[in-house]
Amino acid sequence: MLTILLTHYVPIFSDATFYELADQVSTHPKIVSTTSPELRREYLLSLQELGEFVEPAVQWRGCRDPKDDKFLDVACAVQARAILSGDKDLLILESFRGIPILSPNAFLEREGLC
Question: What sign does the CA torsion over 40, 78, 67, 87 have?
């Protein structure tokens, strides 16, 4: 799935959103139990190299978990095509300021890539 996404789209991060992703990749039990530290490190380095980093000028409030608002900030800063997430606090919004919030699988289906 990641390869398909990275072939067609550029991930957008802020330092804060990338840090959260890196933390999840490094500590999430499901990821840690199925991948080696080297593979996780390569994954993060690839995302860092392929991604675009922005520092949003505006901070939005829209998520029931305020710690997730940083993802809304990044998406709005670049008028992203979508926010891809597995986080229920983001997914429940369905969209924010016209930007759809989808699971990666739902996004791939919508785009006809799976």
Answer: negative
State the pLDDT at residue 3.
85
Distance of CA 59 to the CA centre of its chain: 17
Domain chopping of the chain, boundaries: 2-110
| Alpha-carbon separation of residue 51 from 14, 85, 91, 98, 109 (angstroms) | 10, 16, 22, 22, 22
Is the pLDDT assigned to residue 107 strictly greater than 90? yes
Write the CATH number of the domain with boundaries 2-110. Answer: 3.40.50
Tokens 């980093």, residue located: 53
Q: Is 76 exposed, middle or buried (0-12, 13-18, 19+ CB in 10 A)?
A: buried
